[in-house]
Amino acid sequence: MYNIKTIEDRIRVPPDMFGSELEDAVQRILRERYEGRIYKDMGIVLSIDKPKVLTEGTVIPGDSGAYYTVSFEALTFIPVVNEVYRAEVKEIVEFGAFASIGPFQGLLHVSQIGKEKYYYDKKAKTLSSREAGRSVKKGDEVLVKVSTVSLKSTSSDTKIGLTMRPDGLGKPEWFKPKKAATPAKAEKKEAKSEKRGDAK
Hints:
The structure is a single chain. By secondary structure, the chain is α+β, with helices and mostly antiparallel strands. The chain has helices spanning 22-34, 183-199; strands at 2-13, 38-39, 43-53, 66-77, 84-93, 96-101, 104-109, 119-121, 126-129, 134-137, 141-150, 159-163. The chain has 2 domains: 2-77, Dna Ligase, domain 1, CATH 3.30.1490.120; 84-175, CATH 2.40.50.140. It is 15% helix and 42% strand. The strands form 3 sheets. Strands 5-6-7-12-11 form a 5-stranded mixed β-barrel. Strand 2 and strand 3 (43-53) form a beta hairpin. The radius of gyration is 28 Å and the shape is elongated.
């Protein structure tokens, strides 16, 4: 889930930035401090925008920098259990597939692709079900649901579990309606049902 959060913070502007526009200096400091970091309560911070300086600069004896209270907007993303996302399959491995949701990658375990059993094809690099006649490969666009989330301090340590087992999830072409019977087939069906009626 993407969010825009308004945050208030106190920052230190070092003396080597005193020659810059204050808001430019503040934005640079906030970007270095926040962007790309993961917080338990709001997820990963993607970008910082609209910084506002709320107070006059305060100087502390013995410190050459100036301190300001500022507010800003943070664009964040946090994966939420039971939310459905449109994802792209990034990698196929023996035990499942990795798919992107926002800036993260989640694991779609082989047991969570569908209700049927899926097998890894090392040569074709796909996960396929002989029973359903379906397969998943790198680059496929799929609808997935988040089943588990364990947010850590880095993207590589964050663990996200995905599933496509519930109805309505998976590759879009899996759910295209079946073609309606052609007029000729419909007429044959009607003729058969009429014959049955005559036989009675």
